[in-house]
Structures are given as C-alpha cells and as structure tokens.
C-alpha cells in the first residue's frame, strides 16, 4: 500500500488511540516491562499518539516519529506532558535519515506489522543504534497456534488493506535475521512478543 494512503488510514484511528493513551489497558504491563531500562538518547519509531511517553524513566532525549499527521498532532500534545526533552517528527520511517550510531535505545511498539519493508527498517534501526545499545520491540505477528495462524493468514489480505497492518508476519524470524536477540517473551498464543535486542556491531 502506498504510504500516503496508509497514513490516511492511521489518521482515522488516531482519535481512538488518543482516547486509550492514558488508560491502563491489557498491554500497559508489557509496555512498562519492555521500556523499564530504555535510556539515553531514545528514538521511538511509529510512536502513534505517544502512549509510551510517560513510561520512559531514564531519558536524555526522545525523538518520536510517525507519518500520520493526526497521530503526530496528538503525540505533540503528549510530548508537552512529559518532563524530558521530547521531539515529535512527522516522517515515513522508511525515509528517515539519521546518522549511524546516533541513538542509545531504539523502540518500536506495534509497528513492524505496517512497513512495506520491515527488513529494511530493522536494518536501519541497527545502523542508527550505538554498538551495545538497546533495540526494544513489542510486536504482533503470526501465532504459534496453528489454528489461529491459519485464520490470520486467511484474514490478512482483506484486513491489511483496511487497517494498514499485516496479521501474519513472522516477527521473530524477521528480527532474528537483522538483530542480535537477547531475550524474547511471547504472549497470547504466541501472537504478541516482547523482544530485547542489540545491533550486530
Ligand atoms: C498500530 S499503531 C501503533 C502506535 C504506537 N506505536 C503504539 O504502540 O500505540 C502503528 C503506528 O505506526 C505508524 N506507521 C505505520 N507505518 C509507518 C511508517 N512507514 N512511517 C511512520 N509511521 C508509520 C502509524 O501511523 C501508527 O501510528
């Protein structure tokens, strides 16, 4: 799907994300666990309305990126509510041009399902992250349960066009191909994963 069309789909969802932003939801505990040790100069890709912003504890600066103008509008509001330096940029993650080794920590929550080229984005994250830095991911993908996985595969062509997000990506395989994974925790029939990784450098 072309990025302009996809960003418009997310624009339509932005109000819903904003409503959920400050609520304790089923995934709040998982987000907190993943982000507990995020530190230094942090990049958050596809940050949505800024749900993760209050969960960071040890930030020097946060750069948050999203390509949906509506998500960015809300995220800029969320950035005003935190006490650390937080910059929100409207850009397609696949077009970003950061320097090599620019960030101590890179975070993505629920975004690998959306990119046309997730391999490329993971490669970029590896490049932008300092050696020994952290790449922290909370992602969903194809279930480890065969029945659920077949359903995801069947629904994917229809739903991905409507919601801008793929249901059937093998996230663990994708990440293992590009990053040095140090820990994985899977939930909900192996559909959601917390992944702690570092670049190969
Ligand atoms: C499922 S939402 C997750 C939002 C947020 N990360 C969270 O955890 O609540 C996916 C987000 O990715 C953004 N997104 C998808 N593809 C993108 C791209 N290529 N560049 C920038 N943002 C993108 C969407 O606009 C949306 O805000």
Describe the structure.
It is a single chain. This protein has helices spanning 3-20, 28-35, 69-80, 118-128, 146-163, 171-178; strands spanning 39-45, 58-66, 85-90, 103-109, 129-140, 180-187, 192-198. By secondary structure, the chain is an alpha/beta fold. The chain has one domain: 3-Layer(aba) Sandwich (Rossmann fold), CATH 3.40.50. It has a 7-stranded mixed beta sheet with strand order 3-2-1-4-5-7-6, sandwiched between helices. Strand 2, helix 3 and strand 3 form a beta-alpha-beta unit. Helix 1 (3-20) runs parallel beside helix 3 and helix 4 crosses helix 6. The radius of gyration is 16 Å and the shape is globular. The model has no long low-confidence stretch (mean pLDDT 97). The structure holds S-adenosylmethionine. The site of S-adenosylmethionine has 21 residues, from helix 1 and strand 2. S-adenosylmethionine binds next to helix 1 and strand 2. Residues 43-136 form the Methyltransferase type domain.
């Amino acid at each position: 799907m072309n990025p302009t069309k996809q960003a418009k789909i997310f624009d339509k969802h932005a109000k819903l994300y904003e409503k959920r932003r400050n609520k304790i939801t089923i995934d709040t505990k998982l987000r907190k666990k993943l982000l507990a040790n995020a530190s230094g100069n942090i990049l958050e890709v596809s940050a949505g309305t800024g749900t993760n912003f209050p969960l960071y504890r040890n930030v020097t600066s946060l750069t948050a990126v999203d390509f949906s103008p509506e998500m960015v509008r809300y995220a800029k509001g969320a950035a005003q509510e935190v006490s650390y330096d937080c910059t929100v940029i409207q850009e397609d993650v696949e077009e970003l041009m950061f320097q090599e080794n620019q960030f101590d920590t890179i975070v993505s929550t629920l975004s690998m399902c959306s990119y046309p080229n997730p391999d490329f984005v993971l490669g970029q994250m590896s490049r932008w992250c300092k050696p020994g830095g952290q790449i922290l991911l909370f992602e969903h993908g194809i279930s480890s349960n065969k029945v659920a996985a077949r359903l995801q595969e069947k629904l994917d062509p229809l739903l991905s066009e409507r919601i801008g997000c793929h249901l059937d990506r093998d996230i663990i395989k994708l990440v293992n191909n590009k990053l040095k994974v140090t820990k994985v925790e899977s939930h909900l029939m192996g559909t959601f994963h917390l992944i702690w990784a570092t670049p190969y450098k």
